[in-house]
Amino acid sequence: MSFPRKKLVAGNFKMNMTSSEVAPYLEVFRQETEKLNDVDIVLIPPFTAIAKASEILGGAQKIRLGAQNMSPEAKGAYTGEISAPMLRDLFVRYVLVGHSERRRLFGETDELVRRKLVTALASELRPILCVGETLEERQAGQEKAILEGQLRGALEGLTPDQISEVIVAYEPVWAIGTGLTATPEQAQEAHLFIRDYLGKLAGTSLANKARILYGGSVTPANAKELMSQPDIDGALVGGASLDPRGFAEIVAAATPEE
Ligand code: 13P
Prior knowledge:
By secondary structure, this protein is α/β, with parallel strands linked by helices. The chain is about 45% helix and about 15% strand. The protein has a single domain, classed as TIM Barrel (Alpha-Beta Barrel).
C-alpha cells in the first residue's frame, strides 16, 4: 500500500500526567518506538510537563512536542495564559487549536479559535485545528454544515500558504472518551468532505497535501483500519495515549508496510 502523505500520530494527554510521571512514560515510549520510521510522532502533555519532556527529548527529531492550548496574545497582563513564545522556548512545534473540550467547556468561539490559529502560524507553531459535530448534530444530519462552519470560521481569509501549514483533526464529539468510534466509512466520508472544503479555500493541490487526523476513541484495536482509509492521515489519540506501550502500538499501525 502506498502512503502519499506521511502519517502523523499525536497523543493528547489532556489534564493527565504530572511532570514527574513524564520521565518513566518517555523511557518506555522511546524504547517502543525506536524502530518505527516514516511516521511523525507528537506528544501533547499538559503545560506543566512540557519542560521536563523537552529536557528529556533534547533535540530528538523523532518525537516532537505539542501544547494543548495557547493564548492568542504574545505577552502581557493575561493571568493564567501561556503564549506562543513561551512554548517555542521549550521547543514545542505543534499546538492544538479549538479542541471540542475547549469549545464546549471553556466557551471558545470560532473567532477565538481563528485568532489562536493566526498567532500560531505567525509564531511557527504548527496548529492542529480540531473540528467535529455533536451527536445531536449528526442525528439531525447536520454534520457537514457544522464542519464547514467550523472550518470557515477558522480558515476563511487565510492565504493558501497559511492554510497549507494547518493540520486538521476531525474529532466527532460523540466519539471522544465514549468508547464509540466513528466507523472507518463515517470517518472517511467526513475527511473527504474536509479535504474538498480545504480545496475550495486553498486549491486542490494544497488540499491533497494537507494532513487530516481522526480523533475519538482510537485504540490499538481500531487504529489500523481507521488509518488505512484514503483520507485519514493519522490519529489524535486521547485516553489510549496515556499507556506508552498501547500508544506505541497505535504509532506502529501508522507506519507504512514493507
Ligand atoms: P479519546 O481518544 O480519549 O476519545 O480522546 C480523543 C481526543 O479528544 C483527542 O484530542
